[in-house]
Amino acid sequence: MTDFFQGLAPVRFDPDATDDLSFRHYDRDEIVLGKRLEDHLRFSVAWWHSFAWPGGDPFGGQTFQRPWFPDAMGGDTMAAAKLKADAAFEMFALLGQPFYCFHDADIRPEGDSFAESAARLDEMTDYLGEKMEATGTRLLWGTANLFSHRRFMAGAATNPDPAVFAYAAATVKSCIDATKKLDGANYVLWGGREGYETLLNTDLGRERQQAGRFLCMAVDYARKSGFDGTILIEPKPQEPTKHQYDYDVATVYGFLKDFGLEDEVRVNIEQGHAILAGHSFEHELALAASLGILGSIDMNRNDYQSGWDTDQFPDNVPEVARAYYEVLRAGGFTTGGTNFDAKLRRQSLDPVDLLAAHVGAMDVCARGLKAAAALLESGELEAARAARYAGWDGSDLMEMDLDAIARRVVDEDIRPEPVSGRQERLENIWNRYV
After folding, report:
1. Which intervals hold domain Xylose isomerase-like TIM barrel (predicted)?
2. Residue among 104, 106, 246, 363 flagged as catalytic
């Protein structure tokens, strides 16, 4: 046990509360569209930002001083990793969210060899398993960090050095094993450096084939090993590489189709990444749903005055509601959920800041989902959408060829007249609910 969160009580639902550490909108047992709110939202805490991140940014280093950081533990990295896990599960108990997520490098220290790193991961997996059994907190997804270490500076699966490809493949195997052992609901492949800086030294065709083969091997191993969770890819357009191969949902879908994996792999969509790709979050969600590959989400936000991924906690209810409207239209989450891939500002130093950030974000998401659910249940937007396309009901145009359509236009003297899209009126409907 630690004393990091000493003096803080478990977060409770109290709609009349005025303190920082009460839910005013997130009542986990509230029934929305026939399902508990907790089961709709499936909240998850990101281990890396909440417990591993030291508070740096591109222009400054560490600002956080956590008791589990190795320098505070005299360099005993495994003891530090276990203390970090103790603190994490203490926060989970206070917060009461059902899930968490991790990269391998978040929960175990790097060893001097792959074998040592894998052994440490295995030891920490057992340690986390004991805590999960004691608390009931589950694993939403696991993943491998194939981007932080200098060996991955030119990518992992797409690296020009086959030794790095092999090292990355072995790492993914160990992380799939750990995720399976902890009964994770999903496994995520996030290509943090799968891209290029310049075409002067890049063979795009070769790297694409390497990435495809790598993903096929990962899917094949996961299934053969008995992991029955969902395999997810997380699209990201840039930062740190100039152009990443998993740019957005459409790019990922084309990649999956190319390698015959569109029925095997879904996407984990992050709000901040959608914005960096020049899209809205709801666009990416709607597109993924229409393609049948919507899996899970990372809920955060960017500072729209900055040109990089700031990973802030969500605070905009209308923005969040638009995202959940698309999730609900798609039928809601199955194995996926709402992961807070968000971090404190580097000036937010206190333990209570970390807990309060999640409390506020969970309330924002609850408000957004409930507004989206009310609008969906009313049927107002869906009726307007159906009316707009009603002319297609019973139409045979999609089965005709161009010549036959042209003859029909002449024979029936078809003269189309524009019809209002009613955008402003639909926005007014939306705003009545949000």
Report:
1. 122-280
2. 106
pLDDT tens column, 126-162: 999 999 999 999 999 999 999 999 999 999 999 999 9
Residues 6 or more apart whose CB falls under 8 angstroms from that of 227 comprise 176, 179, 180, 184, 187
Assign domain 12-378 to its CATH superfamily: Divalent-metal-dependent TIM barrel enzymes (3.20.20.150)
Q: E strand or H helix at 253, and its extent?
A: helix 249-258
Ligand-binding annotation for 197, yes or no, is: no
First to last CA, the chain: 42
- Burial class of residue 199, CB neighbours in 10 A (0-12, 13-18, 19+): exposed
Pick the catalytic residue from 40, 103, 279, 358.
103
Is residue 413 annotated as a catalytic residue, yes or no? Answer: no
**Does the annotation flag 40 for ligand binding?**
no
Structural contact between residues 200 and 246, judged by C-beta atoms closer than 8 angstroms:
no
Residue-wise pLDDT tens digits, 251-284: 999 999 999 999 999 999 999 999 999 999 999 9
- Contact of 201 with 159, CB cutoff 8 Å: no
The verdict on whether 106 is a catalytic residue reads: yes
Domain ranges within the chain, ordered by starting residue: 12-378, 383-433
Residue 298 marked as a ligand binder: yes
Residues of the chain with pLDDT under 50: none
Residue 63: CA count within 13 A, CB half-sphere = 14
The pLDDT value given to residue 142: 98
Residue 316 contacts residue 283 (beta carbons within 8 Å): no
**311 is known to lie in a ligand binding site:** yes
Distance of alpha carbon 119 from alpha carbon 267, whole angstroms: 30
